[in-house]
Amino acid sequence: MDKTRKNIDRRLFMKTTALAGTTLILPLDVLSSPIGKETIVFGLIADVHKDVMHDADERLQEFIDVASKKDLDFIMQLGDFCRPYGYNQEFLNIFDGYNGDKYHVLGNHDMDGGFSRDQTRMFWNMPKNYYSFDKKGIHFIVLDGNDPNPSPWSGYNRYIGDAQKEWLIKDLEQTNNPTIIFSHQSLELEYDGIANMKEIRGILERTNEKAGFKKVLCCINGHTHTDYANQINDIYYVQINSASYRWVGGDHKVVRYSKEIDEKFEWIKYTIPYRDPLYTFVKIKHNKIIIEPKITEFVGPGPREMNLHESLPNDPIVPTISKYNLKV
């Protein structure tokens, strides 16, 4: 294991991530980031999977309804949202109905069915695959982890290519603001994250060294359908759980809804659905990033009844988003 990696004690970690509502405070080894006096609040929802879940519209609608009652600076969906089929327009309209700033992240499954990134992006009215914006003195970067894999990586596209890397370096150089980075795939979880994550983390770490303060605060992703946080070389990495389910595959198929739903939405049986949608609201205030918890339960048998692992340190199967209180 990399000696520079700041791992949370495993026993403590399993306790803190198994139940939402706990507080995770990780060590800080560099100068604190100069966050301004204004409070920033934004909403996040990840992996709704319109093309898998029969009730994806209702899940997204709840998030939008709750978000609309809050004073937010923006909302964002973290990918695996919907494919650009015409019949998904009503689902997209729910997100677009939010009366405020809203942003997209491209997920790997958003191009399933033979669609290109440009087709999906245009359907969503997303101007660019990767981009940045500023809110109240904080710089936000959205990455596209779906560039084609060069050798030796194989499988689905989960790479950040040269053009995007060059853009990222320049974008970070051009801001003096504390920065939060969003991506669909993880920059920390090696088995299923961005293939060249170590290279990208190196860019972020050198940015902080050159700045002389903690410019890059935190990286936030979806994709893994888990509830987990870690810190590597003074940068936080937070995985936001799916709004809908945990994928468990063909060896663990269980029909959990009606025959009609199962016939129309054939992939649900490969998942453990969450009874209620998961999403979160993030507040940046007084040198802290506070991630709001949300708890639900599984529909039908959970991992224990299915003889699956429940709480690997970096991949717990839980129907929660934990509360994280991250000092920056």
Outline of the structure:
The protein has 328 residues and is an alpha/beta fold. The protein is 22% helix and 23% strand. The protein is globular, with a radius of gyration of 19 Å.
Give a description of the structure:
- The chain is an alpha/beta fold.
- The chain has one domain (5-327): Purple Acid Phosphatase, chain A, domain 2 (4-Layer Sandwich), CATH 3.60.21.10.
- Helices cover 22% and strands 23% of the residues.
- It has 7 helices and 19 strands.
- The strands form 5 sheets. It has a 7-stranded mixed sheet with strand order 1-9-10-8-7-6-5, covered by helices on one side. Strands 4-3-2-13-14-19 form a 6-stranded mixed sheet, with helices on one face. The chain has a two-stranded antiparallel sheet with strand order 11-12.
- A hairpin with a 2-residue loop joins strand 5 and strand 6.
- The chain is globular.
- The model is unreliable at 1-30 (pLDDT under 50).
- Residues 42-226 form the Calcineurin-like phosphoesterase domain.
- This is Alkaline phosphatase.
- InterPro entries: Calcineurin-like_PHP, Metallo-depent_PP-like, STPP_CPPED1.
- One of its GO terms (molecular function) is hydrolase activity.
